[in-house]
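SEQUENCE, STRUCTURE TOKENS:
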Amino acid sequence: MTVIEEAAPVAERTRVAVIGGGASGVLTAINLLARSDDPRLEVVIHEASGIVGRGIAYGTNDQRHLLNVRARHMSAFPDSPSDLLDWALRTGRSSDPQGFLPRADYAIYLQDRLADVADDRLRVQAGAVLDVVPVAEGFEVVTEHTRSHAAAVVLAHGNQPPRPLVAGGEPLPEADWHIDNPWQLARLRGLPADAQVLVVGTGLTAVDTVITLLEDGPERSVTMLSRSGLLPKPHRGQQHTAWVTKVPAGPLAADQLAEAVAEECRAAAERGVDWRAVIDGLRPASQDVWNRLPHEERVRFLTVHARAWEIRRHRMAPEVALRLQRYRYEGRLNARAGTLAEVADHGERCTVCTADATSYDVDAVVNCTGPLGDVRRSTSPLLQALLARGTAAPDPLALGLDATDDGRVVGADGRVVENLFLVGPPRKGRLWETTAIPEIRAQAAQVAAAVAQRTSRSSHAN
């Protein structure tokens, strides 16, 4: 590997490296540039693909893949809730506040918003970041071909790829029928017109995968397989009724919380209010509730209650739910509970046997199990390097990286790493609710303010 030392930055410049160009990184960069008029600030977004705004969440090019949150809640700016709707109206898209825009359109929105604040202080650098090394007065950011200095670093790398599929204790082989990345849409579209497909997973990514497979191939059929066999619940077509969800005071336990939410749902139903309003009413307090759960109760929640919560909290658009209903009516879609036990490779096809001895002869197996949960098992060179050195550490649940409530990274020694910040899904273990735009935009604004303050203070000191 040839490493090129970048030319030393101009003395007056204070570089902030944002690692990741998806929603978390772009929103952080927008806030950094918008909140600071310091001409010495330089914001560098390191994005492996070189294309910002997309990431895993919004990288699809299938216009049938819709946002899972209503447009009225998806503004990039918490203090300007109509910003996305105004943009949609100006650009000829649907400005229905109750609607669900295509995910690809939201990527364009983020790109446009970044362009609005971009000036000569912004740079996008293509290539994956391999390491972030603490050095004097900042960090050395290492990519495959370059090394550069940054006064501060914001880790905004998003979710990890799904864990590899395993059957009988062995990972599935590399084969034409094994699609380990559901966002390889060309491979999905290239399957036979009458393909029979096993989609492993029943979450929102699996739902998008099913839509691409079945809409593009009217003779195709899909079986969705997961431990629970449960699909996300749909949003209601129109929802205007609000509900303030009450949470018990004092010490809190996972089972107690689940029962309290169930009781709120029963109380709402008696008043003609849908359970969705109860779930949405808990959202503003969800991070506080999570913080009130002791570690062992968080483990209990993850083990017993998490899936039931997620299928109600992370819902699919009504139009998407109607598509799935039609596929089921036509007999082209089934959802089953089960786990992989054995896979026989037949070259172009395979036979899958589940733990209950059900057998499926299929043209493809698609891994839609969702993001890898345990960062200690990540194959990311960056995460491996940070964890090995102790610059970063897993949170107590190993769902992401450890950080303070305001987004400062905590190292393996338990101490805060100065000027190293974290935004987005990697804060899940500490916050739980940290994967949707309303939470990410608040984090991005908070971290950007802290970074701007620290780097400005450092610049003045020099």
